[in-house]
């Protein structure tokens, strides 16, 4: 089991949701309208008058074999709309109930 | 969820709601009646009282003064003016605007009830509420040849009766109709010989002309009423009436008098284009609509024309609905052109069909809410509401432009349609709302204006506020919803026509961007030079106020000229008629522009309402000219009026005259304002003193260039023949003044003895001395009066006849007598003329009991300008408040407000270049500008702040922001500026009124936009540097 944390500009929310659906991922936790800033470049997403954009985030816990197709699809999406600042991070799940 | 995301996610609901609003709007529009002005109820109540036989001084002393005293305590009363003239006292009570007139009428009625000891001979005072409704809707002139004698009957039966039944028709007045009467002209010598008097004759005639029910007759089983039918069966019968049986000899009326069945002798001469005519004035009911009523009347008149004898011709002398329709269609055209210009600008800047479509769609949706407002408040489509829409048209697109621009930028960066629409709107929502609030901050106070200005500009304030508010909603719902569905961003091909246009305009705009950013870089580098140049431009522009004239309201060419010609006092009616006929023919032949010349000479029926509004008399000719519509002639009414003046001046008989282009005298009397006249009021109770000053002022007015028609309201003293009765002798004969006066009146004016009835109509039978016995003092002195004892006395035995002088008219204002010197202006403006005259008046030696004051347009102007100055201040403060709270800063709004003074500079330049004046309309335009010009500043400063916050250096931020905001600033300004062009260059009917506003906004906004683009960034850097220095000091302090 792996955890995948995806953050992205909320303007591509529907597209991210579609990627999850296409990868047959049913379960996730989602945060909407959260702030974020890239490490190297890109505009901050702060929801202020200066930086009006905001992020959404998905946390989904999936089987190991599902991770790769998901990451590939997310990379495809990010390549299409680089400025939206899509990021995904994967880590292990120790246990679950 | 925010309103825009809901709208984007539910496009069908959004579109359906929009269609719903559109349908309601179109329905409202179709229901709306058309009128010239919004309903104006001038707060004026007039009280007039007839006092037959009293001279002006008597009327003043016994009636006017007593009534005026009684009215002193009325609530909300602003001004009392009164005119006392022979037989009539007219008091005008002017209340504060907004006073409840129904209550006031009751108070006036009570006040009259409280006034004691009014002369017994005076009639009960009549109270009349004046309003613009009293101005006739249509005026007809009816001419006839063979049927002239019977014209009154024809008019009454076939014209007035059917018209009275037309819905919405109020009063119909007829002037100059020949009245049939049976004239019994008596030979006084024969009368004396048979021991008869006029009164006795009258009594005999009355006694012979009656029907008396004489009881019931029982005939068998029936009960039948019995009547004695003694009424004259034909006018022939009258002459064979037996008037006396002296010494057994029967005397018939025909033996002592000539009996003529003819026309009543009236001292009134009505001509239209030189033909005998009767004028019919039709007023509408107060709540009826001018255009609808006029349409119905015209329809009815067309039907009536067919039933009239062939020689009876009906011509419209004046038709208020034509002016209304012409101005409305002219304004609608203006509105259409404005729409086209706005769409063209959007097309040029965006060069994308779909984007242009979305923005263009937001215009009708926002504007139509204006119609819904008018409909719900029971208003009309009038020149004010249509002009408001022309102004709104340039403003309602702004919000949509800003929103759409941001959405398309997001789309260009590769966003998805729906999200770009939502977040694109969200980002600018605050700026859009704030800049709309500044517009509202300026227009909303207009709704609080009082007085005449309030009536005119309250609808404007509401309509612009409502449609601009609607435009924000549209820009946050419909625009994102449609953008999400329709916008596609793909560079158009360079081959198609649309593509060529796109690349061409983008190239052009790119050049503009580059040029601007170079200019801005230079300006930021030379801050102080820029600021000094700006200050010099503004301060030197203030001197233009000295050159530009000022007036109250621009005069309009409404196809009408009226005029009055006075011959010397005491000129006989017949002589005046000769002059009138001559002038008629001269003017008619000389001016092809004139459709109808209608003249009215003589006193006519002194007791009609008409007599209150126009001064009439045997030596006075009143003129009304109707011109061809503006489009069909080259000369303006002002030029024609000027030429007519020179024509009249050539006549040596004429003593005084005025020619009033646009008939502004009549409308200003109704409290409707407008027109340009100079009026100087000279207060003082001493007739001689005030007359002398009036004469002096009138002379110095004549010296001032551009002042025409200088008139002194008080005519020269009137010559009177005065009979002084010897009381002692009179009482010894048992006579009273009343009986003597009555006897004299019967002999000269005549006694209406009884009425002759024919076919349901009644005609007066008038007995008086034959014409040849009424024209010398001898005849008067020989009038016989029967004493109660039956003895006959000659008038000369009890009285002496002498000539004396009396003022024909006494005017008062606020209980003090005054003389008015009035003048029309042509080729100058009130401001200039007034200050020139003030100089001259200062040099005069004015006695202590006399005060001199300005009235008329100058008075209105002073009051309105004072209100507007306050409004301007209020607008500035409100705009500052709105901006300060939006920016959460005190300095930034201050920086933005630097664009306001340059708007004023632009306005002044525009007025100077196009030869317009500072007036009510251009001032309102200037006030509007305050809200409009700061919009540019807001867009600029807001974005510069953003850049600074995003970490750019001050100069960089200013230049980047400037370059990136140049297009939206220029685009939103251009839509407004170009929307004004049709207003400025339209030459249709009534266009003069709105021209100054167009000029003010056009030049003010252009100039201010140009200056704002350079000056505001420069000032921003100065303030910004200060801010940064302060912040640095703070950090240094805190680190220590």
Structure notes:
The complex is a heterodimer of chains A (97) and B (1040). By secondary structure, chain A is an alpha+beta fold. Helices cover 28% and strands 29% of the residues of chain A. Chain A has one domain: Alpha-Beta Plaits. Chain A contains two helices and four strands, in the order βαββαβ. Chain A has a four-stranded antiparallel β-sheet, with helices on one face. In chain A, helix 1 runs antiparallel to helix 2. Helices cover 55% and strands 20% of the residues of chain B. In chain B, strands 1, 2, 3, 4, 20, 21, 28, 29 and 30 form a nine-stranded antiparallel β-sheet that branches. In chain B, strands 5, 6, 13, 14, 15, 16, 17, 18 and 19 form a nine-stranded antiparallel β-sheet that branches. In chain B, strands 12-7-24-23 form a four-stranded mixed β-sheet. In chain B, helix 2 packs across helix 12, helix 5 packs across helix 10 and helix 34 packs antiparallel against helix 35. The longest helix of chain B is centred in the last third of the chain and has 45 residues. Chain B is elongated, with a radius of gyration of 37 Å.
Short characterization:
By secondary structure, chain A is an alpha+beta fold.
Low-confidence stretches of chain A: none
Report, as a whole number of angstroms, the end-to-end distance of chain B.
48 Å
Q: Show unreliable segments of chain B.
A: 669-674
Radius of gyration of chain A: 14 Å
* Secondary-structure class of chain B: alpha+beta
What is the number of beta strands of chain A? 4
If helices are DSSP runs of H or I spanning 4 or more residues, what is the number of helices of chain B? 35
**What is the correct CATH architecture of chain A?**
2-Layer Sandwich
Main sheet specs of chain B? 9 strands, antiparallel
**Oligomeric description of these chains:** heterodimer
What is the number of strand segments of chain B? 30
Overall outline of chain B: elongated
- The mean pLDDT of chain A is 89
**Average pLDDT taken over every residue of chain B:** 82
Estimate the helix proportion of chain A, in percent.
Answer: 25-40%
How many structural domains of chain A?
A: 1
Q: How far from one another are the termini of chain A?
A: 12 Å
- Which strand order do you get reading across the main beta sheet of chain A? 2-3-1-4
- The residue fraction in helices of chain B comes out at 40-55%
Q: Report the portion of residues of chain A in β strands.
A: 25-35%
CATH topology of chain A: Alpha-Beta Plaits
């Amino acid at each position: 089991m792996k955890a995948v944390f995806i953050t992205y500009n909320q303007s591509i929310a529907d597209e991210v949701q579609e990627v999850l659906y296409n990868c047959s991922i049913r379960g996730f936790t989602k945060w909407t309208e959260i702030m974020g800033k890239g490490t190297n470049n890109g505009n901050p997403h702060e929801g202020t008058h200066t930086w009006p954009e905001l992020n959404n985030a998905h946390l989904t816990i999936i089987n190991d074999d599902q991770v790769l197709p998901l990451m590939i699809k997310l990379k495809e999406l990010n390549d299409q709309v680089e400025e939206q600042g899509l990021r995904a991070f994967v880590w292990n799940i120790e246990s679950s109930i | 969820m925010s309103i825009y995301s809901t709208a984007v996610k539910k496009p069908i609901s959004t579109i359906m709601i929009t269609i719903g609003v559109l349908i309601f709007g179109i329905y409202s529009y179709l229901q709306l009646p058309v009128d010239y002005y919004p309903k104006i109820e001038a707060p004026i109540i007039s009280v007039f009282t007839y006092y037959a036989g009293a001279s002006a001084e008597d009327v003043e002393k016994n009636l006017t003064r007593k009534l005026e005293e009684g009215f002193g305590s009325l609530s909300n009363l602003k001004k009392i003016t009164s005119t006392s003239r022979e037989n009539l006292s007219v008091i005008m009570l002017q209340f504060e605007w907004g006073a409840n007139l129904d209550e006031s009428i009751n108070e006036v009625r009570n006040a009259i009830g409280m006034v004691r000891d009014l002369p017994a001979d005076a009639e009960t005072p009549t109270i009349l509420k004046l309003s613009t409704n009293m101005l006739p809707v249509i005026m007809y002139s009816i001419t006839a040849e063979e049927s002239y004698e019977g014209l009154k009957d024809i008019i009454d039966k076939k014209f007035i009766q059917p018209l009275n039944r037309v819905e919405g028709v109020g009063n119909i007045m007829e002037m100059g109709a020949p009245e049939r009467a049976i004239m019994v002209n008596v030979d006084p010598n024969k009368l004396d010989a048979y021991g008869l008097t006029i009164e006795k004759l009258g009594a005999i005639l009355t006694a012979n002309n009656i029907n008396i029910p004489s009881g019931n007759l029982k005939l068998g089983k029936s009960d039948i009423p019995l009547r004695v039918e003694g009424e004259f069966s034909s006018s022939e019968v009258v002459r064979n009436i037996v008037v006396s049986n002296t010494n057994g000899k029967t005397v018939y009326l025909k033996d002592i008098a000539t009996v003529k069945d003819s026309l009543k002798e009236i001292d009134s001469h009505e001509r239209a284009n030189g033909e005998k005519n009767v004028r019919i004035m039709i007023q509408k009911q107060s709540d009826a609509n001018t255009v609808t009523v006029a349409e119905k009347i015209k329809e009815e008149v067309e039907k009536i024309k067919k039933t009239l004898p062939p020689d009876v011709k009906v011509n419209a002398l004046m038709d208020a609905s034509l002016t209304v329709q012409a101005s409305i269609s002219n304004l609608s055209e203006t509105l259409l052109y404005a729409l086209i210009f706005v769409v063209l600008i959007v097309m040029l800047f965006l060069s994308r069909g779909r984007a242009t479509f979305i923005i263009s769609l937001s215009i009708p949706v926002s504007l139509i809410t204006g119609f819904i407002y008018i409909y719900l408040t029971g208003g009309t489509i009038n020149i004010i509401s249509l002009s408001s829409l022309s102004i709104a048209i340039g403003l309602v697109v702004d919000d949509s432009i800003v929103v759409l621009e941001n959405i398309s930028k997001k789309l260009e960066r590769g966003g998805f349609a729906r999200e770009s629409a939502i977040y694109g709107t969200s980002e600018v929502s605050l700026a859009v709302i704030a800049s709309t609030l500044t517009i509202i901050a300026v227009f909303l106070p207009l709704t609080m204006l009082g007085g005449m200005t309030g009536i005119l500009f309250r609808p404007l304030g509401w309509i612009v506020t409502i449609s601009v508010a609607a435009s924000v909603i549209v820009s946050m719902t419909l625009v994102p919803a449609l953008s999400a569905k329709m916008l596609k961003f793909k560079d158009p091909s360079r081959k198609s026509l649309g593509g060529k246009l796109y690349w061409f305009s983008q190239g052009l705009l790119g050049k503009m961007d580059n040029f601007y950013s170079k200019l801005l870089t230079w300006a930021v580098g030379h801050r102080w030079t820029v600021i000094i140049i700006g200050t010099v431009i503004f301060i030197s522009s203030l001197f233009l106020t000295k050159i530009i004239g000022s007036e109250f309201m621009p005069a309009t060419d409404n196809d009408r000229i009226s005029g009055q010609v006075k011959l010397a006092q005491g000129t006989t009616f017949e002589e005046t008629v000769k002059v009138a006929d001559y002038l008629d023919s001269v003017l008619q032949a000389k001016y092809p522009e004139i459709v109808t010349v209608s003249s009215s000479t003589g006193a006519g029926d002194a007791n009609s309402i008409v007599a209150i509004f126009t001064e009439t008399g045997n030596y006075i000719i009143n003129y009304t000219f109707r011109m061809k519509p503006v489009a069909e002639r080259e000369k303006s009414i002002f030029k024609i009026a000027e030429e007519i003046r020179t024509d009249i001046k050539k006549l040596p008989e004429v003593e005084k005259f005025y020619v009033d282009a646009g008939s502004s005298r009549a409308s200003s009397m109704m409290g409707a304002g407008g027109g340009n006249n100079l009026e100087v009021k000279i207060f003082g109770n001493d007739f001689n003193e005030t007359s002398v000053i009036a004469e002096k002022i009138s002379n110095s007015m004549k010296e001032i260039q551009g002042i025409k028609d200088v008139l002194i309201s008080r005519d020269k003293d009137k010559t009177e023949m005065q009979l002084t009765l010897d009381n002692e002798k009179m009482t010894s004969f048992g006579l009273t003044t009343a009986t003597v006066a009555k006897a004299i009146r019967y002999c000269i004016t005549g006694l209406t003895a009884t009425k002759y009835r024919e076919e349901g109509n009644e005609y007066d039978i008038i007995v008086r001395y034959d014409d040849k016995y009424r024209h010398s003092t001898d005849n008067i002195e020989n009038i016989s009066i029967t004493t109660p004892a039956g003895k006959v006395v000659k008038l000369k035995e009890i009285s002496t006849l002498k000539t004396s002088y009396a003022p024909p008219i006494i005017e008062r204002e606020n209980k003090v007598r005054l003389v008015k010197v009035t003048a029309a202006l042509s080729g100058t403006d009130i401001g200039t003329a007034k200050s020139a005259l003030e100089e001259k008046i200062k040099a005069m030696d004015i006695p202590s009991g006399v005060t001199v004051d300005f009235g008329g347009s100058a008075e209105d102007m002073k009051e309105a300008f004072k209100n507007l100055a306050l409004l301007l201040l209020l607008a500035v403060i409100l705009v500052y408040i709105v901006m300060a709270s939006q920016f959460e800063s005190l300095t930034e709004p201050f920086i933005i407000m630097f664009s306001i003074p340059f708007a004023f500079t632009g306005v002044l330049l525009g007025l100077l270049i196009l030869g317009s004046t500072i007036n009510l309309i251009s001032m309102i335009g200037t006030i509007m500008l305050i809200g409009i010009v700061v919009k540019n500043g807001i867009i600029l400063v807001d974005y510069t702040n953003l850049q600074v916050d995003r970490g750019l250096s001050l100069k960089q931020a200013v230049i980047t922001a400037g370059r990136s905001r140049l297009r939206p600033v220029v685009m939103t300004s251009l839509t407004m500026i170009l929307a004004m062009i049709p207003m400025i260059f339209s030459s249709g009917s009534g266009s003069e009124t709105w021209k100054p506003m167009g000029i003010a906004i056009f030049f003010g906004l252009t100039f201010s936009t140009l200056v704002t683009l350079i000056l505001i960034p420069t000032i921003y850097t100065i303030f910004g540097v200060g801010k940064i220095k302060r912040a640095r000091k703070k950090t240094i302090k805190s680190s220590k």
